[in-house]
Amino acid sequence: MSSQYFGAEVVNFYDSYRTAEFVYLASTSLILYDYLSTFDSEVDLFWFRKITGATALFFAARYTTLLYVLLSLVNFSISREISDEYFPSCDMLLKAYVVVQTCQYIPWAAFAGMRAYALSKRWTIFLVILVLSLSPFAVNFVYFRSLAIPVLARSGLIIADLGLVLVTWRSVAFGPLRTVFGRQSFTSIMLWNGIIYAMVLLVLNIFVLSFSLASIFGTEGASYLIDFSEPLTYILITRFLLQLQQANKHNVKLASDHPLHLSLGDNSPSFARVLGSIGATIMPEDT
């Protein structure tokens, strides 16, 4: 009887392992496909242009994730070949993989904070969105077995995404951009895309939190869906940055009286130059 139980456990473990391999390869392939399909746009929009905050943010978000994919592929191949032996170099490689995976959240959080500031012009909102978006970065460096910590990390992201949706919607509905949003312009397109992207990220993080709770309480297969959350977040943010840069490429004007022209003072450089396409928009009369 015990041998039958042991055999069933081995079969279940092997089946789960094979499923995890398939999910991992699928999520990795999604990132690589997105990179290859948008590489020409990256070269055209970022490689030979003036370096701004948007440029630095795009490259940080893009290549931190690609480095993570590279390290994960190396770890994946090594784990299949020498799983029964221990090598210090493999341990260091695994630590590097975990660090890079966690550091993905830094440019994502910076993007959320900069976008919130570009729309609200308030440093307090920028800091709140930034800190909440960095919650996974903080807790992922802590080895946890408690349910409270992953819930806290994902809850921070959900609140940050909700805040970004509200800030964008407030700028459109009640702010100086409300007259622009109703027109068929690059400005309205970018604002509308901003709302859509923020809402998609919000819904995604709500689903991830739900599936995390389900996997902790023993729902089989729920944790596999979580593996797609980081690739989808990466794709949404980098594609939005590409769209912003594409819109900014078309005769962008940042007049001092424009709603998204962010001046820090008479003697300070415009923060819009630092934000680049994140803080830029197209004047209505040019569309």
From TrEMBL:
Annotated organism of origin: Polyporus arcularius HHB13444
Keyword Aminoacyl-tRNA synthetase: no
Keywords, sorted A to Z: Membrane, Transmembrane, Transmembrane helix
Claim: Membrane is one of the keywords in the record: yes
Domain spans labelled DUF6533: 23-67
InterPro entries reported for this sequence: DUF6533
Annotated TM spans: 22-39, 51-74, 94-111, 123-143, 149-169, 190-216
Domain of life: Eukaryota
Protein name: DUF6533 domain-containing protein
